[in-house]
Each structure stands twice: as C-alpha cells, then as structure tokens.
Amino acid sequence: MFEHYLLPLACLLLNFLAFAACLRFLFSRQGLYWIIPLALTAVISIPNALSLYAVASDSALAPLRITALDLQPLLLSLLWYAMIVTFHYALKKTIRVNLYTEQVKKNLHEARHLESGERLARERKGRRAKQRKRYRAKLAERGVYSEAWLDLYDTE
What we know:
Blueprint: H1 2-26, H2 35-57, H3 72-94, H4 99-134, H5 147-153
Helix pairs in contact: 1-2, 1-3, 2-3
C-alpha cells in the first residue's frame, strides 16, 4: 500500500527541493535569473501534486505495476533539480566579481583608515589640552602678604 505513495511523493519532494533552491537563490545577488526557473518549478510540481492527491483519495488501490511511463515524472523532477543545481554553479562561475562584496571590503578599509586618522587627531588634541592645562598662566594669589609688609615696598 505504501509503495503507491512512493513515486508521486518522491517526485513532489524533488520539486519542493527545486522550488526551495530557486526561492533561496531568488533573494541572492543574481536573483533576477531565478524568476523563470521558480515559475517553471511551480508548473512542474502541479501534475505531481495532483497525482499524489489521486493516489491518496483512491480507496481501492490496484496492485502496483510500474511502467516506463510511470517513471517519467520522477526522471523529469530529478533532471530538473539537477538542472537547478547546475545553473546555480554555472552562475557562480560566470559572475565571478561580486561588486557588493568588493564595495563592502573597500568601504570597510576606508572607514578603518579614516577612523585611525581621527583617533590620532583626538589623541593629539587631548595631549595638547593636557599640556595647556598643566602649563597655563596662573593668577597671582592675593592676600599672601599683609598690608604692613606691602607698605614697606611702596615708594609713593
């Protein structure tokens, strides 16, 4: 009884894997290339889902006799999934330069360089502020000497 479900379920599973892979690659940098394979995967999976539904809803199952025509959807699903994987690796090899990652690396190096320059300027400014604070001009203290003492040095 379980063997009746095996073939349509395997086809649907392969189609689901192909759909999930296309959906994952759709949100990558080369996402525009994956719109058509995603649609074709959805179209290919509809007959397999219908055949699984037909097997599941049929209460009186006949003895299982697998012919070459019954294996055709499985082979199609298997070849389609292999084609998706091959297309993914072909895109990876063809589009070698990922401009996004190169720009991120360039921006990171530039930000680190600017940050180090700003850090040196801050340290330099802090050292100057410390030196100004240490060697600044001080007001003379009044009231250290008494008035009588100061009168001795007044010449007027």
